[in-house]
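PROTEIN–LIGAND DATA SHEET

This sheet pairs a single protein chain with one bound small molecule, zinc ion, given as SMILES. Inputs appear in the order they were entered. The predicted three-dimensional arrangement of chain and ligand is reported afterwards as a token string under its own label.
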Amino acid sequence: MIRIVLAIVAVALFGAAAVAASVPSARPADSAAISRPRYTPIPTTATSLSPDVGDRRARSDGRLYGRFVLPIEGAELPADLDLLPGAPRDYRAGIHEGIDFPADPGTPVLAAADGTVIRVDASFLDWTREQQDVALFEAMQLGYTPAPTLDRIRGRQVWIDHGRGVVTRYAHLSAVAELSVGERVTAGTVIGAVGSSGYPQGGPHLHLEVRIGDDYFGDGLSGDALVRGISRLFRS
Ligand SMILES: [Zn+2]
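PREDICTION REPORTED AS:
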């Protein structure tokens, strides 16, 4: 009889412990659900992606060489590997997928090539520091940065589709130009202004991503080859 009672107590205790153990992992999602701000959803079908350009052979091929102008007038291409694709981003257990151009807040940001606007965060609301903390904690627990978290870290954005699966993304903007989704822009069109939305800890800079299908340009490159590949994207 005593043995049975002990067994029941043990089950009760173990059950309580199991419930207690599950609470911390549930917390971030719950907190985020309570006060998640509105922000522009990630476009899912707006691009002209085709399966053949999304494969990993496309990530660093020469098709894109010379196709772009610098997105900030007079800017220099960063040579610091920490500002280039592939750099570790330990604070979110992730990898950098873009090119960072440090610049003063408000500096005009230019379309890097002719294309069609597929995203413009006109009514953008940044997340709070507390919401960011919760999301970054979750990323560290997971060991990678979930796509919605990465999107919010990029802050206020404009995306331009250049056809054949090639898309440029302009992130951390302080403001966007009066653009509409579907509008054609040409290389050099002002599309927004430099800021630090989404991740103010990084200081004001433009984060430019050159996407090819689901991949980012520079994936798989490193060191001098990466610096060379990035510099060849831009007309001198
Ligand atoms: Zn960046």
